[in-house]
Known about the structure:
The structure holds four protein chains of four kinds.
Chain A: H1 5-32, H2 35-60, H3 69-86, H4 90-109, H5 117-136, E1 149-150, E2 156-157, E3 161-162, H6 166-188, H7 191-201, H8 203-208, H9 213-239, E4 241-242, H10 249-262, H11 267-283, H12 291-305
Chain B: H1 2-32, H2 39-54, H3 60-94, H4 102-124, E1 129-130, E2 140-143, E3 146-149, H5 150-172, H6 174-184, H7 186-191, H8 196-222, E4 224-225, H9 229-244, H10 249-269, H11 275-289
Helix pairs in contact in B: 1-5, 1-8, 1-9, 1-10, 2-3, 2-4, 2-8, 2-9, 3-8, 5-6, 5-8, 9-10, 10-11
Chain D: E1 3-14, E2 17-28, E3 32-36, H1 43-50, E4 58-63, E5 66-67, H2 73-78, E6 81-84, H3 96-103, H4 111-124, H5 126-130, H6 141-153, E7 159-163, H7 171-186, E8 190-195, H8 198-204, E9 207-212, E10 215-221, H9 222-226, H10 229-236, H11 238-244
Parallel strand pairs in D: 3-8, 3-9, 6-7, 7-8
Antiparallel strand pairs in D: 1-2, 1-4, 4-5, 9-10
Helix pairs in contact in D: 3-6
Amino acid sequence: MKLNKNVNQKNSIFKNWLVILVAILFIILPFIINAYWVDVLFFFGVYALLGLSLNIVLGEVGLFDLGHMGFMAIGAYTTAILNTTFGIPIIILLPVSAISAGAFAWLVCSPIIHLRGDYLCIVTIGMGEIVRLTLNNNPFGITGGSNGVYGIDFPSFGSIFVVDNSTKFYYYIWLIVGLTIIGLVNLQRSRIGRAWNCIREDEIAAESTGIDVRYYKLLAFVLGAGLAGVAGNIYASKLMIVSPESFSFMESCMLFCIVLIGGMGSIPGVLIGAAAISLFPEVFRAFAQYRMLIFGVAMVIMMIFRPGGIWPRKRGAFEFKPLLMKAGEENG
Amino acid sequence: MKIILEQLLNGLTIGSFYALIALGYSMVYGVMKLINFAHGDLFALGSYLGFTLLVSGSAYATVTFGIWGGMIAAMLIAAIGIGIAGTLIERIAYRPIYPAGRLPAVVSALGASIVIQNGIMVIWGPRPQAYSSQVVPSVILNIGGIKITLMQIVVLIISFILMGLLFYIIQKTTFGAAIRACALDRDTAALMGINIETIIFFIFALGPALGGMAGVMVGMYYRKISFTMGWNYGLKAFTATILGGIGNIPGAMIGGLLLGILEMLGSVYISTAYKDVFVFIILILVLIFRPTGLLGEKIAEKV
Amino acid sequence: MAKENNNMETIIRTKQENEGKNKINKVVLQTDKLTKKFGGLIAVNNFDLKVSQGEISSLIGPNGAGKTTVFNVVTGIYKADGGKVLFKGEDLAGKKPHQIIKKGIARTFQNIRLFSNMTCLENVMAGQHCRSKEGTWSSVLQTPGQKKEELEIKKNAENRLKQVGLWKWRDELAKNIAYGNQRMLEIGRALATNPDLLVLDEPSSGLNDKESEDLMDFLKEIIKDNLTILLIEHDMNVVMGISHWVTVMDEGKKIAEGLPEEVYSNPQVIEAYLGKDEEEEE
Amino acid sequence: MSTLLKVEDLKIFYGSIEALKGISLEVKEGEIVTVLGANGAGKSTLLRAISGLLPIRSGKIKLDNQELNNVKAFKIVMGGISHVPEGRKVFVTLTVDENLNLGAYTRRKDKKYIKESKERVYDLFPILKARRNQLSGTLSGGEQQMLAMGRGLMSTPRILLLDEPSLGLAPLLVKQIFQIIREINDQGISILLVEQNARKALSIADRGYVLETGNITISGLASDLKSNKKVQEAYLGGAALKKRK
């Protein structure tokens, strides 16, 4: 067995450099590439945010959620409807969308949280479908049916700064993604994250070790849904229109794949998975109708050769150093 | 009253499609504990195979065997073709992944589903295809004031024969008992001298074969097929499977038929637009009170 | 057969056991007419058990006697169909496992249940969950209080890991360490919850003789820390070697209890284990 | 008597845990051989390895001098080994009759054989005939044990592997089960019996082995083992008690 603390520490330093490098790359990218690719990278960001949100539920806690797009839809429509009918600024609606999606998750998941594996899976599918179909049917004439809601404002911080072009949106989404990553890494390294992982590993042992399984499962759903709601808000303001077909079951499946292709519970993994899902069709655009075929084949081959994902989460000494802790504090 | 009966018949027809597809999900799940997400697309592939035999490609089957004979021939060929496709998918996409656990298999299954769906699109084109009324006779019968199409009767008869046959094989023969034994406890089944690989081959051939036949019938019944139909039907059939209790053969049949009827009643008494919402709400309510479906076994984990 | 129904006897017995210590032990865990049914089968039938403070009590009996079921009811995994479980005088009815552990009963499992894809240290840190309180937001924002608590958790967990002798495996995934170490890790995780009563389900099963000996020494050592142990064990060497009190169960009922020596020579126990002698019977 | 089943220096691992540490034993034609040992000693592992459910790390298992290593489980059944697993493992949602049919799965096409075979089983266990259309999950523990044994006999094995047939049964039933084991043996079927109930097992066995944490520590004629103080110690922990004193 390899057990060398130095290796881990080296790894940690290497990782920090990598993080900084990637961050710099993301900052300068819009100056190098054209507007089309900036847009592509914006949607990569949206997928990354959604992937991170599903990763809480699926990756950290191991709950099969195949209706995650439903939560995003709640967030997107909250933003769209409140903005277009009452003129509430998008930026205020950002937390509102998160709260409404989270509250929705809490309401619908409470009675079903005890279901196991595949039964939970079909219920989440059903939930996602119920949301999509209901939006499609224009209840009380507020969702605009299959046309959706259009005319959504850009996010603006007062009148000083308005996010109104591709580059600004690019920075906006990746800023949110960046903040989310910091928050989630902190969570991973806390008793909350540990409790989630324990439930994923063995529910009965977790309960018998003193973890309130029901509470932490619900917490994961609510947080995941809240983040998806945030993604919905940004998505709505970028496209200026939301319509039900953006939130299909197929999209939920793609999110599921983002988490598994990257590696369950691994934050870099989610980013890679999101990149694979959002960039792949663009890169293979030349193959036109064959690209999805290739995509499907790639998914199968991926799972045969790397069933644990591209960048599975590694666990070791460096994990426990809180992100912003001074070096001297460790080992006390 | 007549409307209710007609709707019940419609619901039963759709329900028997769901049931036939659901059987495939349930059989595979029962033995492998794997949700075969590609199953719905295999059903769609069956539909397109039938379309080629009956309509395009100079309607070979219809020309050779006449309308009814052609239909039977198309269903048999679809059954064999999709059965082979099913076992191929097991070999290529699932078998190498079994040791890695269940979740990677979900991704692989989704991948296989995308491959089939887009394969259909590449071969037959992205636009929906239509059956002409020459291929499928559109006769409406009036029995005691209740309108019923000839096709509906045909679908109901064939579906019930198929379901009856499967029920007989699974519930009444020793081979069927072997399949159920494998689903309960693979190790002990092996101690009986059952070759597990034969069983796996069988379920991955038979389930999709039934789905393929359902595909041909759906094509003829609705006269319109599209390459995305696998997802819609697959989702409904999977819902039916869970409703009945996944892994349970009679459960899948009852779940399918019930789902079809609920859907129709929902569209009559609630609204057509909300019928699917109604169906999913019923499903969720059932699962809240019976966490393993209507006929599902209670799972008690040994501690 | 020593049938014990009142506290007097408990006091006398523990006095004998703790010669010279001049301490009177009280009953910490007690089940009163405990009954648990599965379908038609009565797994535990009017079962009375008493566990005295600071002792190692063993629950033994042939396979299928209902021992693990008793454990599962005591730790809240199953609900009792009848009777009571009293811990430090408090009725545990309706409490969930995570609430019971907070009251001070920690357990291990017959077939080791670790968090296999987490490191050994994380496994033990998980045990501290019920003794810490920082919430979601303070964790996301990493407040000073949260950092302090997290370091506290880590330090305690490290000490526990050293205590069970697994310090050098701290960063290894639980599934990768040897079987004997996994047993100890599970005990370490249970100890990390700072329990008053440690409930061990066949801790020596799968261990070799040396490991069993070490385990016995370890258990004798930790009860000095004002800890009480309740043990299910098949390995009679362990039971006879360290128990202060032995309760024998068969077919859901108590068939005997007493000091290890008494149980060892009790004909009913011998029969439950070795079966009736043909000659004697006929 | 010729050797029917032979195990040579068998080692079995679960992951990195060594469950059997190189054990050897044999069963001669017509014998009842018992393997005794406490929980976790490796008794069930031994039987599971013989019937092909576990991969063999090293050593050999032979039936009539034919090697069984890496032979698939269903072929081993055809070779004449039938294994009645621990905890009965009847197929609970199948009827008694279906369970018995599965016992003769390898010869399922031969209706006449199955009928005769079933009659033989009914002779041994008349209760099964009365219960034949009942779901086996609704049977009592003792009846399930009889069903499991009857199912094992349906293939007319040459050797029957019995894993803890007395487990969780009331004393009277245990007595009955052991009588039936004797009857089965009288029909010429060799038996390898794994038991915790040492006295009972030794009372019907010809020879016995004691298995302790993966090693065979004592072996010999059943009559010798019966009076062997060491066997009692191995079971009730006498040694540790002595040491403590």
